[in-house]
Amino acid sequence: MSDDIGPMIRTARERRGWSQEFLAAKVGATQSTIDRIESGLTRRSRVLPEIVSALDIDLPGHEKRQTPTQVVGGFARVTYVLPKELIERIEQYKFAIGISSDDEAVRRIIDDFLKKRDEIVDVINRIINKYKLIKSMREAAGTVLANHPLVTTISFDKGGVVFDFDDSLYGKLDIEITSWGLVSIKKPDGSNFFFHKSDAPRWLSSDNIVEEYGSTDYIPF
Fold first, then answer.
1. What angle do CA 27, 33, 36 make, to 5 degrees?
2. b/e 124-156 (16+ beta carbons within 10 angstroms → b)
3. pLDDT tens digit string along 104-132?
4. 200 and 175 in a common domain
5. Residue 1 · residue 44 · CB < 8 Å
6. Judgement on whether residues 201 and 129 belong to the same structural domain of the protein
7. 160: containing domain
8. Do residues 124 and 106 touch, judged by C-beta distance below 8 A?
9. Dist. CA 25–CA 10, nearest whole Å
């Protein structure tokens, strides 16, 4: 390993604002290993390809190692380096909900966070797409809506589903999806929630469509 590689790694690391400990955790090494590489005391190391890839730098004679994402049974294995205080909060979360798996805890936290960013069109699309696959509105809606943080009530009637969705702008919307895939949306005051005709989803009831822009009820998703 040439004499300038160590300083090059140090410069790249510091440019990213990473500590030696952080880089070490990311590549599966110890802080002392990183320090010895950067100081030029270690000229060969098994983790050098990982360091090169993590820092996204080009070193003569060393190719960046691409680690393929492992997908097993619909789950992808990914690795993140998290600060200690975040790990402690995850441990508190595990204890609070009574689970022991780190993977399950992180999955639930991320899933809950992303669901809170959902818009109603996205949720309805997921239900309808699921329904097309399994041909059961009850099962499709249950899969998508169960434990959704923005869904407050769910009921089933004649093959369809009715549920409330807590929209950040309009408040609690009332949504009905029929078994043939037609959807109506009402606002908290019982009035129709409108889309412009050119932007309306194909599954939307005609009662929720306006011809011209300018309606105070219209919202462009």
1. 135
2. bebbbebbeeeeebeebbeebbeebebbeeeee
3. 888 889 889 999 999 999 999 999 999 98
4. yes
5. yes
6. yes
7. 120-210
8. no
9. 15
